Amino acid sequence: MSASGVSRLSVKKGGTLPSALRMAAVTVPTAAALWSAPQVQQDPPSSPTDSDAAAVAPVLLKMQNIVQKMLHPESGVIVRSYKRRIISAVPSAFTGADLVQWVMKHLQIESKVEALHLANIIALHGFFFCVDGLEVPIRDDGTLYRFQTTYYWPSQNPSDSDFNYAVYLVKQVMRSKHKIRLLNYELTNLSKIKMHLGSQWKEITYKAEDDYRILKEQKRVAREVLGSQEEAFWRTKRPPPSEPNINDISLTRLYTERTRYVQDSNVWNATHNHTHKTIIIIL
What we know:
Elements: H1 19-24, H2 31-36, H3 52-70, E1 80-82, E2 90-95, H4 96-106, H5 112-124, E3 128-130, E4 144-147, H6 162-175, H7 184-196, H8 201-216, H9 220-237, H10 251-257, H11 265-282
Antiparallel strand pairs: 1-2, 2-4, 3-4
């Protein structure tokens, strides 16, 4: 365990992790490498009338730069293992309180409400997530969160095709044993995709079996972290019907309407007043 609390996951011998796991099974996350890596540059949209899709990439790169600073081994958010009363330690995690404190200090935000709002915007895009697997807002308390692996960062354009989604769902079924891991909407999606990709189903099953076999060979900590990161990615890309898809909603609408993720109605009123300033920080 390094000074920053970031642990390295080792991959057991017997093969290279396929698909997304190949990139995810490195440092969780490799903070020093992320910090020293050159920043990705991209030209901004040519005019204010460009579509939302064209405007997303520069905003995601801004978010990426903020998260890279959060991952700095010395000045970043404190990432370490946390012990709980009933279950074993939670690896590679950080608290909501530490995140909010970092945002206020390093981004020079005076309002805690505004810091929470900004943290929630970045979380909704998939850069970090709650380790309990719940769609909850970032809270200024001891709730535990985990950084997403760089492979799944939205700024890296990870593939979210129906084929890869089907592989994930089939693999979740394989992992289930006596516990059903798929929610009702995921079971429905699996059934629809099976009808749509019926001719490729044998390939999908083989790929899921290969991924699952290699994942089982990893140590418990590696399985836990990699599994949670993959689940968080697909919750962002294929959310429940009751939640809007981050890929199908304009940024302006997102920043003005999704503040309900902040903890209560009083915070909502205060956050709404800070929305414009928060957008400026990101853009």
